[in-house]
Specification:
The chain is α+β, with helices and mostly antiparallel strands. It has helices at about 5-25, 80-100, 130-135, 135-140, 145-165, 220-225, 230-245, 260-270, 280-290, 300-315, and strands at about 35-45, 45-55, 65-70, 110, 115-120, 165, 175-180, 190, 200. Strands 1-2-3-5-4 form a 5-stranded antiparallel sheet, with helices on one face. The chain has a two-stranded antiparallel sheet with strand order 6-9. Strands 7-8 form a two-stranded antiparallel ribbon. Helix 5 (about 145-165) packs antiparallel against helix 7 (about 230-245) and helix 9 runs antiparallel to helix 10. It starts with a helix and ends with a helix.
């Protein structure tokens, strides 16, 4: 039986939290008439992403497509858990902007709090890397050099987050966003979905919270010994392996769906995804270093960038 007093207390806490968020996001709030929300383009456990049209004033040049991330709930006042998730992602995006942003990290464009909790970000016409990987015909046309260039852009985005004391904690192909033609030298590639990201400085104690996505999460997240930014290095290794693989049958992740304890045991026993020839020649050394069980033995993202730059120069 529910406790009415507890329920009322939760609503009171949510109302106060919403007031704080309203004040904190004041400069980023978008007028209801400035945003038109259209069809859904993606869905998560607690949110969905829709295509939107953002208009600022009457100037046609100030109209643009945007990604509308809505934090779903069925209550008159958003629950505390939803408000905290909204504020966490907003604060990370605002922190990125305060550091002048990065060309390979998604940009905050605004928020709305009523009638829905929404964060507005850039829209990517190709969707995610995960979606691009499903198109075997198009992906098969990608050269090794183009794949190295794509990996390099992702690595630069992660390295920038680390430089500014942020750990993404959910690096995966679904959270790498793409616009433009992948076969050209200049598709737009950005790291998105910063909802799991945290601020973590070198002198801070190790993190303990279990986060991430099956198949991409680093083993130390499940060992309860704590973790740091090297979890993103492991996850990047999985993404690099995915984009280096030529076809779906070469991209079967042996860790997908495993429970944490089983996954850690498999990794300790030497289980790793396989990289087929000829991509093994070019990317094998990098992914093997990213997948070292001991996080301290993994390279930092700046070292990964140097190795990818060397590959690009040799191709």
């Amino acid at each position: 039986m529910s406790n009415p007093q507890a329920s009322h207390a939760d609503v009171d806490i949510a109302i106060e939290l919403l007031k704080e968020i309203t004040a904190e996001t004041a400069s980023d709030q978008i007028g209801e008439n400035d945003l038109t929300v259209e069809g859904q383009v993606g869905e998560g456990i607690h949110s969905c992403v829709r295509l939107g049209i953002l208009r600022r004033g009457n100037n046609v040049s100030n109209v643009r497509q945007v990604a509308v991330k809505e934090f779903r709930h069925q209550h008159a006042v958003p629950p505390v858990s939803v408000l905290r998730a909204f504020r966490q992602e907003y604060r990370i995006l605002a922190r990125c902007r305060s550091q002048n942003g990065h060309q390979h990290v998604v940009e905050l464009l605004g928020v709305t709090l009523e009638p829905r909790l929404i964060i507005l970000m850039e829209y990517f016409d190709r969707g995610s890397l995960a979606q691009c990987l499903q198109d075997e015909a198009a992906w098969g046309e990608m050269s090794i050099k183009q794949k190295a260039s794509l990996g390099l852009k992702i690595a630069h985005g992660i390295a920038w987050l680390h430089k500014h004391d942020m750990i993404h904690r959910d690096i995966k192909s679904h959270n790498i966003l793409i616009s433009g033609d992948l076969t050209t030298p200049s598709p737009t590639v950005k790291i998105g979905d910063l909802g799991s990201a945290v601020v973590h400085q070198q002198h801070d104690s190790l993190l303990q919270e279990e986060v991430g996505s099956s198949g991409y999460t680093a083993p130390e997240i499940f060992t309860r010994h704590g973790y740091d930014s090297k979890v993103d290095v492991w996850s990047f290794g999985i993404v690099l392996w995915e984009l280096a693989s030529s076809c779906l049958k070469d991209r079967i992740n042996p860790f997908m769906g495993m429970a944490g304890e089983e996954f850690v045991t498999k990794v300790q026993d030497g289980c790793r995804p396989k990289l087929a020839h000829p991509h093994q020649i070019w990317f094998g050394s990098i992914v093997e270093k990213c997948w070292r069980f001991d996080p301290s033995q993994r390279p930092c993202m700046n070292e990964v960038i140097k190795q990818l730059e060397k590959i690009s120069d040799e191709l």
